[in-house]
Design brief:
single chain; mainly beta; Immunoglobulin-like; 8 strands; binds copper (II) ion
Length: 123
C-alpha cells in the first residue's frame, strides 16, 4: 500500500495558513505587555546572578532568592528603600514604586555592598 502525496497536501496547507495567520502583527485586542516583575538571586559568592535588570515604570515586583548559605537584601540605593530580604534558601517578593530612570540595587548586608551592585533600568 502506498500513500499518495496528494493525501498529505491538505494538512500542509493548513499548517502554512496557520503560520501565515500569526506571523507578526500584535493582536490589537490583547492587553499591553508589561514587564513589571524581576527575579534575582543573591549568590553565596556575594554576587548577584544578574547585574542588569530592566523593568517598566510603576509598581515593580522583585522576587529575591537567597542561595543556600547566606542572607541578602535588595535595596534601591537612590532611595535607600529595602524591597525584600531573604534568609538562606528562601525566596521573598517585595514591591517598589519607581519612575523611569536608572537605579542601582545593592545588598546592604555588612560585607556585601562592595560586590553586590547592579543596575536597574526602569523604562
Ligand atoms: Cu548580600
Amino acid at each position: 500500500m502506498t500513500v499518495r502525496p496528494a493525501r498529505r497536501l491538505p494538512m500542509t496547507l493548513v499548517a502554512i495558513l496557520a503560520l501565515t495567520a500569526c506571523n507578526g502583527e500584535p493582536d490589537e485586542g490583547a492587553p499591553e505587555q508589561t514587564a513589571q516583575s524581576v527575579a534575582v538571586v543573591g549568590q553565596d559568592t556575594l554576587t548577584w546572578d544578574a547585574e542588569e535588570l530592566t523593568v517598566d515604570a510603576g509598581t515593580i515586583t522583585v522576587e529575591l532568592t537567597c542561595e543556600d548559605g547566606v542572607n541578602h537584601n535588595f535595596v534601591i540605593a537612590e532611595t535607600d528603600e529595602e524591597v525584600a530580604e531573604c534568609a538562606p534558601g528562601e525566596s521573598v517578593s517585595g514591591t517598589v514604586d519607581l519612575d523611569a530612570g536608572e537605579y542601582e540595587y545593592v545588598c546592604t548586608v555588612p560585607g556585601h555592598e562592595q560586590t553586590m551592585r547592579g543596575t536597574l533600568t526602569v523604562n
